[in-house]
Amino acid sequence: MRLIIYTGKGGVGKTSVSAATARRLAQKGHRTIIMSVDTAHSLGDSLNIKLGPVPKRIAPNLDAFELDILHEMQTKWSAIKDYLTAFMFSQGLESISAEEMAVFPGMEMVAALLYVLQFEDQGKYDAVVIDTAPTGETLRLMSFPDMSSWYIDKAFSFVNRMINVARATIGKVVDFPLPTKEVMDNLKELKDDMTRVKAVLDDTEHTTMRLVLIPERMAISETMRAYTYLSLYNKNVECLIVNKVLPPDVDGKFLQVKLKEQEAHMTEIHKAFEPLRIMSAQMLRTELRGTKKLDHLADMIFGDEDPIEVYASESPMKFVTVDGIDELCLKMPFVKEDQVELFKGNDNTIIIHVGSQKRTVLLPMTLAGADLLGAEFGDGCLIIKFRRKKV
Ligand SMILES: Nc1ncnc2c1ncn2[C@@H]1O[C@H](COP(=O)(O)OP(=O)(O)OP(=O)(O)O)[C@@H](O)[C@H]1O
Ligand SMILES: [Mg+2]
Q1: What pLDDT does residue 109 have?
Q2: Confidence class of residue 265 from pLDDT cuts 50, 70 and 90?
Q3: Does residue 177 lie in a domain region?
Q4: What pLDDT, on a 0 to 100 scale, did the predictor assign at position 100?
């Protein structure tokens, strides 16, 4: 199953490009589903069709839905939701806001990832397209499977401590409810699912990220950061889609100036991101909405190509051995040496800090106890060197 995730700065055209891609995939004969994970959904508006929180057929080979986290909590995680609501209520929140508060930030992402697993298990679709909220949310989506085990382990140890406290204070009233076995089982299941999700997201042959941007300074900077962080999380960024490019024959002084500015930014984009595949779509004169215009957008981006294609599938993270020294090579575009911090973690891990992001990389068993020799930059990659322990 092919999984295509679109991300980019607010308003650059993620939803339009996702919808156009999904329609084109379906037209090419692929059984396709498009899911919107943005809480401020606009997928239905873009397609000019009313969408709900469950998948529905909107065209031949094409299903669509807008994920609604409250609906997911009601229908799938009622045990966890009831517990969290009761917990919030015990802490003095009104029950209605307690219910809303029981939704943690990033939970939409978890729900979206669980759908991906469900689609993979069902074998019902050849392609899944995800339209996400602006970049920050997507980074959370990508880092969540890594983080979730940690969170869930913490939740387990917290609950175990609470159960002990409850035992110690037997006869007295603990001022919040303890989770039931069902809640704990659900959490355990969630942890196992996230391990599987991680495998799907890390499968660079099938799962890819596509970055949408417009030829403007702030969008370029945000896209550079996203590219760096996604590489850090070992996610395959396969192409860039530059949207809202002014046609060369624009009239009027105002647009002429804008065009010049865009041209300079286009040169910069090519210089910065190549050899990454760069596609583009022109700015339409009228609002881009409805299936006809979306198909026109797909024509501009993909021409005759099939969007199911994987434009690049090289993993951003590789382990190699050079002259008896083990090297971990991490693609890290746009990063300077002094922006990176490396730490040796517990349990055979290394921790890499870049800007505000942090990634814990679990080393292969062969490197258990290996000496960290140092690190260097070469060819946009961070190369971390190890010497294995002598047996
Ligand atoms: N090539 C284009 N030509 C003209 N208008 C466009 C084009 N692409 C997108 N738009 C318009 O720009 C607006 C934002 O597009 P869209 O909703 O797809 O962006 P988004 O990145 O999903 O935004 P958000 O971050 O709010 O989710 C919409 O009104 C859309 O119709
Ligand atoms: Mg959108």
Answers
A1: 76
A2: very high
A3: no
A4: 65
Which residue among 245, 275, 302 closes a domain? 302
| Nearest of 211, 226, 337 to residue 276 by alpha carbon | 211
pLDDT at 174: 59
Q: How far is the CA of 283 from the centre of ligand 2 (A)?
A: 17
Q: What is the pTM of this model?
A: 0.85
CB of 13 shorter than 6 A to ligand 1: yes
For the CA of 245, the closest atom of ligand 1 is 1
Residue 73 C-alpha to ligand 2 middle, in angstroms?
23
Domain final residue pick, 257, 274, 302 = 302
Q: Is 283 in the pocket of ligand 1 (CB under 6 A)?
A: yes
In a domain, 53, yes or no: yes
CA angle 97, 157, 153 (to 5 degrees): 85
Is residue 201, in this structure, part of any structural domain at all?
Answer: yes
Q: Is residue 138 part of a domain?
A: yes
270: containing domain: 2-145+195-302
Question: Does residue 289 have its Cβ closer than 6 Å to ligand 1?
Answer: yes
Same domain, 292 and 361: no
Q: Are residues 141 and 275 in the same domain?
A: yes
Same structural domain, 296 and 355: no
pLDDT band at 7 (very low <50, low <70, confident <90, very high): very high
| pLDDT higher than 60, residue 190 | yes
Tokens 């051995």 found at: 321
Task: Provide the domain count of the chain.
Answer: 2
- Whose alpha carbon is nearest atom 2 of ligand 1? 283
Question: Are 131 and 60 in the same domain?
Answer: yes
- Residue 273 contacts by C-beta under 8 Å, 6 or more apart in sequence? 227, 240, 333
Report CA(16)–ligand 1 centroid distance (Å).
Answer: 6
C-alpha of residue 10 to centroid of ligand 1, in Å: 9
Of 288, 291, 296, 302, best ligand 1 pocket probe by most atoms within 8 Å of the beta carbon:
288
Band of residue 96 on the pLDDT scale cut at 50, 70, 90 = low
Report the atom number in ligand 1 closest to the C-alpha of 288.
31
Confidence bin at 300 (pLDDT 50/70/90):
very high
Between 273 and 181, whose confidence is greater? Answer: 273
